[in-house]
# Entry
Amino acid sequence: MSLVLEERPAPYVVLLRLNRPEARNALSPELRGELRAKFLAMAEDPEVRAIVLTGDQKAFAAGADIRSMVSIGPGEMMRRNDDLNWSAIRHSPKPIIAAVNGYALGGGCELAMHADIIVAGEGATFGQPEVKLGIMPGAGGTQRLARAIGRYRAMLMLLTGSSMSAREAYEAGLVSLVTPDDDTVARAIAIATTIAAMPPLAVAEIKQVLHAGLDAPLDTALMLERRAAYLLFDSEDKREAMTAFLEKRKPVLSGR
Ligand code: CAA
# Structure
């Protein structure tokens, strides 16, 4: 049975559901491989403009699969080269909205942080408990968490293995918005649907510039932004959207 279920809840929107409920959606090598294949395929698919990634009510994902790691050493970790799996998600040109209910721990929290927008149900829990297992995050948990919530709150979580509620995560800046648990996926789909109706070239440039710019010196980042902004003036959708505004009608977007 597939470990990642795929649905099309709206035009141009894909919903991916992690499907290992018996293991709290722990990220086994097989599940990671399926996610990678899906993200690589969606990157090239013009029928996909926004991706919602979710788990179930109990867990978004409880982290890397501890059973698959208990008896392996660094050589096997290197051979698994898990970064190939993460890289397919990290380099997704399409916006990713994580709809998080339940546990987002370890690699599960890291997976949520691979998203561009995080919608959290009130009962969601975020944490990087790797330290309790004698290891540490290896897919951005130290770096993305510190960038999202600041080094001091991140260090507290990482060194003690403590978790944050959805509300705390929202206040700290890790989460885009908090919803009742029953609304999380619907809210994420609604956001994805809104994004999917936007000019896709503008969406892609905004996503890329925001991420790349945050890790660059400000002057470089601002130049990156200007260049991308100027480039969009060559798109058909820019011409159509501005003309439609002035003619007081809805634009007919081509994606070009
Ligand atoms: N790996 C493998 N199996 C896991 C798992 C994980 N990360 N998390 C949960 N499971 C399994 C449990 O072993 C259990 O299986 P059995 O029924 O066969 O015993 C099943 O899922 C249900 O788990 P619980 O009974 O523990 O469920 P709970 O609701 O009481 O607790 C939980 C849920 C708080 C998430 C708890 O399961 C837990 O603490 N899980 C481990 C979380 C963790 O340490 N994550 C970090 C992993 S390391 C990592 O992610 C680092 C990296 O990227 C390299």
In short: The two ends are 38 Å apart (CA to CA). DSSP finds eleven helices and ten strands in the chain.
